[in-house]
Structures are given as structure tokens and as C-alpha cells.
Amino acid sequence: MQEKDIQTFIKGVQEYFREYAGEEARVEIPYVKGSDRVLLDYTGAIGISGERKGCVYFTASGEMLDALFRHITKAEGSTPNDLKDIGGEIANTVSGNARKHFGDAFMISIPMLLNGDASKFDFDMASVSYVFPIQWRGYKAFLVVGFENA
After folding, report:
1. Are 112 and 42 in contact (CB under 8 A)?
2. Which residues have C-beta within 8 Å of that of residue 108, sequence separation ≥ 6?
3. CA neighbours closer than 13 Å in the CB half-sphere of residue 83
4. Run of H or E including 150
């Protein structure tokens, strides 16, 4: 991926948190990782097809997603389905914004929502993925982007 592509994903994460959480999340320097996956408690994954094939996923702890859900909805609590949904919403929003950058040939799927069980993660990841560490209110999460044609 080129620098402008990387910046697209960083800005997408920052914009999501600024708009919905009222403050930016800090996106740390991305690093390159092999095809093994970085997965936390809850993951929202978007399959990518078209000129680029691969996956974009957001993964976070249940505590982070609960804090974010409570902040956004002003609810007193959350369910595991709420946490899966918000993880999927983040992945979908960031991928949708990236589609504006990459164009109509960057086709995104509906989110696949997971909690805990990595064996259900069936999106093909490229042999190299970019991992974007994210900090928000002391919580850590990751956005992972892997394309065959990056």
C-alpha cells in the first residue's frame, strides 16, 4: 500500500471516533504482519473484492466496545450482540470511506461479526497485512487491512 492509502484508513478511524465518540482515537504507526491474525474479544470483518481482494477488520476488547456503546447510545449497559454490532459498524464505516478513496472497483461485503472464536474467521487475508494499533480512552484496538493487490 502507498502512503496515501495508509492515510485513508487512519483518517477513517479518526473520523469515526470524532463523529460518534466526540473525540479522535489515536492511531499509532501501522506495522506489517504476516497472514496470522490479530484478534481480540470482538471483531467486525469486511471482505473486499474487485480490483483488490482481501479483508478489512476492526477488533477490540469487550470493555472498549462497551464504553463506546454506552457513550454513543447513553445506555446503562450493553449485550454481546450490541458489542458485535458496533465492531461491525466501525469496520463497515471505515471500509465505506476507503471505497471513496479507492473507487467503485473497491467492493465491500456486509460485515461478518465475531466474538472470541477465531476459527469462524473465514476471510482470506493477504500474505502481508497492515496492522493499525488504535488507542481510545486507555483502551486498545486494531484495524487490520490485507489486500492481495496492495
Report:
1. no
2. 46, 47, 48, 56, 92, 95, 96, 99
3. 20
4. none
Tell me how crowded residue 24 is: count the other CB atoms within 10 A of its CB. Answer: 14
The CATH number for 3-147, chosen from 1.10.760.10, 3.40.1550.10, 3.30.530.20, 3.60.15.10, is 3.40.1550.10
Cβ atoms of 88 and 48 closer than 8 Å: no
Structure confidence at residue 135 as a pLDDT band (50, 70, 90): very high
- How does pLDDT run across 3-42, given as a tens digit for each residue? 898 899 999 999 999 999 989 899 999 999 876 678 899 9
* pLDDT score recorded for residue 128: 77
Instruction: Name the pairing type of β-strands 129-136 and 26-27.
Output: antiparallel
Picking from 94, 46, 42, 50, the residue whose alpha carbon sits closest to that of residue 68 is 42
Alpha-carbon distances of 131 from 66, 144, 146, rounded to whole Å? 22, 5, 9
